[in-house]
């Protein structure tokens, strides 16, 4: 059971891009590169910050840089969620 | 799907921010039509042509590729030369849509300006802008309404690229301040590679006098429909006749998304990006018509800078996709061209 799903990511990406019409991305989209789905680095940066804020995690930059597809991105988030011990986070 | 009638082709010509060292250089010397168009540009550029060509082909250009004296003329030349290449294939675009300097390239491709005249106009623009105060551009993942409360002074919306991709432009100091305020408010921002505040009032004084240059050249009715990103509508005769319409383009905001919406409202298209990178392709992929799959996007060049072979591989892949979309593509060794030997009046 994943805590973070492809649907979660696609919803966030659509919000980031301000897409009005909710056209569902096909399941094939999971393995396509973000750029081919219309999401450039700015949209991706925005999605990362939304996921980090929404889930209270800090995503590892190096791993993320290699996550070029939604499927890979979801894996990174889930690995982080699984590894995240009830965090003692520095205030601020 | 479209059994008999292929999607009409619309060319997208990118502008500032898409430039990079050796952009499209992998096609130079390999694609005769592209090569001839680039050489023609360097020749028309006169004494500056040699340095432009050297910097274009250099891994480390003597002058920064993000500087107005390199980014603008070379983006114009590459966009236009790639457009010429597509036309040489026998593909007749139903529409042209350029972003920023890409609009001058599309107008030239459509024959509004003669090619030598256009080169002179671009270089005139560049000379004026090179003297303008330094500034920059900042892409924000936000709508124009979201950024509006944070703007002040000479920092303005320079481009509307997508519903939540707004590019701000302004002098360096104030732009940094606005960027800080936006980040504090939770917005994601990224600097656009530019050393000038394109599409902002910062460039207003530098553009004074440019209208006379536009007024002095012959302008013709376009042979292909040009969609303007300054009016978000099809270029009209009165736009063409108005020298200020052209002269003010470096100061006026680029309404790319509204223009793209206007273009796709006329019907579905095969959108072909003719320029370095895939910036316009990426935002176009967010359009509902492309999401639905009724319109499609093809990029002629790779998303990221790479070795020369990558340019050629991307071009081959694009040709295959354009053919698969139902357009016969005829590769020619050389371009028969009515403007090949312009009448000189020297």
UniProtKB/TrEMBL annotation, chain B:
| Alphabetized SMART domains for the sequence | PKS_AT
User: Looking at the Swiss-Prot or TrEMBL record, what is one Pfam family this protein matches?
Assistant: Acyl_transf_1
Is Membrane included in the keywords of this UniProt record? no
- Species in which this protein is naturally found: Streptomyces capoamus
Q: Name one GO biological process term.
A: fatty acid biosynthetic process
- Is Phosphoprotein among this UniProt entry's keywords? yes
Q: Which residues cross the membrane?
A: none
Sample GO molecular function, one term: fatty acid synthase activity
Malonyl-CoA:ACP transacylase (MAT) domain spans which residues? Answer: 12-305
Protein name as catalogued: Malonyl-CoA:ACP transacylase (MAT) domain-containing protein
Q: Which keywords belong to this entry?
A: Phosphopantetheine, Phosphoprotein
